[in-house]
Design a protein that fits this description.
This protein has 175 residues and is mainly α. The protein has one domain. It has six helices and two strands. A hairpin with a 5-residue loop joins strand 1 and strand 2. Helix 1 packs antiparallel against helix 2 and helix 2 packs parallel to helix 6. The radius of gyration is 20 Å and the shape is elongated. It starts with a helix and ends in a 7-residue tail after the last strand. One of its GO terms (cellular component) is plasma membrane. It is found in: Cell inner membrane. Keywords: Cell inner membrane, Cell membrane, Membrane, Transmembrane, Transmembrane helix, Transport.
Length: 175
């Protein structure tokens, strides 16, 4: 139940951030060419929205198995070595994203204490930087999910249906 809610929230956030960034950029261009003026904060907001979208999109990529990877060595290895390489890679993913989430949270706390605000929007910067620990924490969680699934079933990702509606399933279970 929790994972299902989290999946939908993740997809909704990614879609919303992407749509909002597109609309803000479009409105800014229309304003610039029709009135000669622009929306002073549009570029800043668009950048922040794309940062948030990318952080949550990376977690979505881990969940659905669509991350780009160089798997030539893994595919060339015999099954026992392949299993070790996959577990090692996932463990490194968990470690890296966990460390980024931890230090990102420390950074957010530090920035909160400084009272910094963004230049154009004048939003508290700690809210903007919150994308780092939240996105990396979710990505760490997705790596843990993927590793548990692999250890139990040999599948690299479960049968999922993402935003594009394309169902993906690992065809060959690894030993």
């Amino acid at each position: 139940m929790f994972n299902r809610f989290l999946n939908h929230l993740e997809e909704w956030l990614i879609s919303s951030f992407m749509a909002a960034a597109t609309l803000v950029a479009f409105a800014a261009v229309v304003m610039r060419y029709t009135t000669g003026g622009g929306i002073s904060w549009a570029q800043e907001l668009t950048i922040y929205l794309f940062i948030w979208m990318a952080k949550f999109g990376a977690a979505y990529g881990v969940r659905t198995g669509i991350h780009i990877g160089v798997d030539f060595v893994v595919n060339a290895a015999n099954p026992p070595i392949r299993r070790i390489l996959i577990i090692t890679a996932m463990s490194l993913g968990v470690t890296f994203t966990g460390v980024i989430a931890f230090f990102g949270a420390r950074w957010v706390i530090f920035i909160y204490g400084t009272g910094q605000v963004s230049p154009d929007l004048e939003w508290p910067m700690w809210i903007i930087y919150l994308a780092i620990p939240l996105g990396s924490g979710l990505m760490c969680y997705r790596f843990i999910q993927a590793m548990i699934l692999f250890l139990k079933t040999g599948l690299l990702h479960s049968h999922t249906q993402g935003m594009a509606g394309a169902a993906q399933e690992e065809k060959e279970a690894l030993p």
